[in-house]
Amino acid sequence: MKRSFSRIILAVSLVSHVVAYTLVKEYSGQNFFDGWDFFNGYDPSTYGDTQYVGPLSAAQSAHLAYVDSSSGHAFMRVDNTTNVAYPNKRNTVEIYTSDFYPVGSVFIMDAARLPWGCSVWPSFWTRGSNWPYDGEIDIVEYANLMGNNQMALHTAAGCTHTTPSNQVGQTIEPNCNATDGAGCTVSEKKPNSYGPGFASAGGGVWATQFDTSGIYIWFWSRSDVPSSISLSNTSIDPTSWGAPSASYPASSCDIGSHFGAQQLVLDIQLCGAFGNPTYNQTCPPGDCYLNSVIGPGSPTYDNAYFEISYVRVFGLTNATSNGSSTTTGSASATSPGAARTGSPTSTQGSGTSDALPMLSHPLSLLSLAAVLLLSLGLM
Known about the structure:
single chain, Jelly Rolls, 9-stranded antiparallel sheet, 379 residues
């Protein structure tokens, strides 16, 4: 019996590491924009030269946000048809999820194209309800004609980034304190993470693990996407993905004290706090707004659009939301309220998929282990 019990303990150890996360929410197809709010108006926080258009119906009428009927992909774009006169802003979009997702979540975005061009500053990121104290995770961010994507964390004081041995990307800035502007930044070293190279490679996938042990961001160009990441799979195991592009271990940034539940955000800003100071590094000499934003929108903004296959959220069992509630049985979303000011319009809908129960009870694990050993003839 002692030998059998030892084998059961071994099997429990193996079983507990097989499937870590199950599907909580999916944004895809004709219902992609269900569950997102559209910011409406000017956002002064990043000093950009954009006017965000909302609600969804207004963005659709302006052909700035829509789902293509043939591919089922969601498009978000900068207005490239209007001749903008000085000193006006150019129309674009920003959307953010109605739900906030707790520590113990994984965010995945599959995109065919990303916005690019002079003055263009796109982002796929997350934020807590009380910035910067609840943190920010920048998953996709770059400006103008930069050659690669950048990832970053923004937090209150006390969070730093030490480059771990399992990180593929290059650490640019170690201080995550939001008052420093850039946050703790990691530059992607894999090819085709941005611009025409990303599009010609067929796009790619980002996965972000938001965990008590740290925050980890993976990028794969289309040909390298793991087979376990697909619309047909409702569970994922990040331990099978290899080294991440950006690794922020909790040893130098305590996740529980620097991050709350996170809201997903997609936007396209123009110029602004990131685009202006980097404009002349890759674009013609001159002023970002005067050179690019005003005047005809084409051809300057013909490539300034997202084409997204899906965004999915996976969760752990018994995860706790740092927003307004504690979940039991699965990591689920909460809605403590939008973090932005302005005129958001909700488009909540049918994108939810209930998380599958995990075997978190010791007896359940022992039972499964016993069945596994019996099937192998070891008991």
